[in-house]
Amino acid sequence: MLLFKIFIVEDDPWYGEILQYHLGLNPDYEVTLLKTGKECLAQLSKKPDLVTIDFSLPDLNGEELFRKIRATQPHLPVIVISAQDKITTAVSLLKLGVDDYLVKDDHTKELLWKSIIRIRENLSLKEEISELKAELKTKYDYSNTIVGNSAAIRQVFRLIDKAAASTINVSITGETGTGKEVVAKAVHYHSPRASQPFVAVNMAAIPKELVESELFGYEKGAFTGAQQRKTGKFEEANGGTLFLDEIGELELGIQSKLLRVLQEKELTRLGGNGKVKLDFRLVVATHKNLADEVRKGHFREDLYYRIVGMPIVLPPLRERREDILLLAQHFLKLYSKENKDTEYKLSADARQKLVQYPFPGNIRELKAAVELAAVMSEHHQIEAADITFMSDLTKDPLEGKEMTLREYTRLIIKNYLEKYQDNVVLVAEKLDIGRSTIYKMMQTGEL
Ligand SMILES: Nc1ncnc2c1ncn2[C@@H]1O[C@H](COP(=O)(O)OP(=O)(O)OP(=O)(O)O)[C@@H](O)[C@H]1O
């Protein structure tokens, strides 16, 4: 651990040594005794963490020395210790920004001990706050999370900016793994609602009979088993953004209820009477073409017009190949960072293999392939042979046959289930998909 460096500036050697001895009892402190203001200024380059100064030094008085320290070290904590207990001096020094003012008496060393502890606590709080601010800034700054330079993705950036600056609803369409959720988050974290909740609900992952209570919440006793009141996702998102993923999976009955909530901007919890006022921005996503779903009678037209707001279309990765290498490098960097590892390099062959592949699983698949390649590589140099695509794992049955994305997905999942002895939780984690997707395919007999 780094020692906390304290300078004591005190011209009375006897008193200075008492303070130095007392503070030195703390093994975390490195205490240096200095006799004059000039000596202190000359030693500031040694970067002390805290300075205590005697108010009446032979060369500079406490205030002069404090001003000079602050001129070069605006954040360095300073405690003034003075023989005089004039309130006016104390107040004016504290107003100038001195961190504490102590009067020399029998208790000074104990007070100084406590004062330093308090100042250190404040310092660590400040550090924590600035770390949190930096973290929030990265969330705001979606250029760190959404990588790409293709014309398509640049247009998406433009739309995110526009959507974030307004309160318009947003509908995001794209194949699985194209980044619909990251775009939804970018809209939220870039908007004035950023400090409010972002609540994501995947409509495909909630059993039909639970959708209503999940979204609307319920009162105690609303149905058997409702032992206490539960707030629904609409309410949780109040003040922030509600992200309804796979909106195309919503049943017609629930669609009308959703429409009513959007029109009236209030809801009644199941089993309740009172209305709850709502204020959230709605962002929806789907891999389906909602306009087609309307034509087929699967999706209410009035709801469609309510939610469509600003449509953002995320093209599949195979239609924006210029983003593949940027994304691959981005994921490799993330991978090194997460594993506290050095950087990985892609050989020319490896690059070529990546840009030529059609990526049915889009960015999610690219991420998985690149991470696996990093593990397989030698000396942090990724060769073409280190890259295995999901469809390679299931190559034989695919030979010569054109398949839909769903069929591909089924084969990939099947292959993984075999590999991991039907451990659904592990497979869902490995493939970065919801467990419900696997369970559903099992229920429908596809797996
Ligand atoms: N442009 C991008 N830059 C960097 N990472 C991205 C980008 N787009 C997506 N990702 C990453 O790819 C993965 C899949 O993205 P996301 O979950 O947003 O896709 P999705 O379209 O919502 O998928 P699904 O339809 O299956 O829910 C995530 O790990 C995400 O962080």
Automatic annotation (TrEMBL):
The keyword Transmembrane does not apply. GO terms for biological process: phosphorelay signal transduction system; regulation of DNA-templated transcription. Residues 5-119 form the Response regulatory domain. It holds the Pfam family Sigma54_activat. It comes from the Bacteria. Keywords: ATP-binding, DNA-binding, Nucleotide-binding, Phosphoprotein, Transcription, Transcription regulation. The keyword Nucleotide-binding applies. Coiled coil: none annotated. GO terms for molecular function: ATP binding; DNA binding. InterPro entries: AAA+_ATPase (IPR003593), AAA_lid_NorR (IPR058031), CheY-like_superfamily (IPR011006), Homeodomain-like_sf (IPR009057), P-loop_NTPase (IPR027417), Sig_transdc_resp-reg_receiver (IPR001789), Sigma_54_int (IPR002078), Sigma_54_int_dom_ATP-bd_2 (IPR025943). Residues 146-375 form the Sigma-54 factor interaction domain. PROSITE patterns: RESPONSE_REGULATORY, SIGMA54_INTERACT_2, SIGMA54_INTERACT_3, SIGMA54_INTERACT_4. The modification 4-aspartylphosphate is found at D54. This is Regulator. The lineage of its organism: Bacteria, Pseudomonadati, Bacteroidota, Chitinophagia, Chitinophagales.
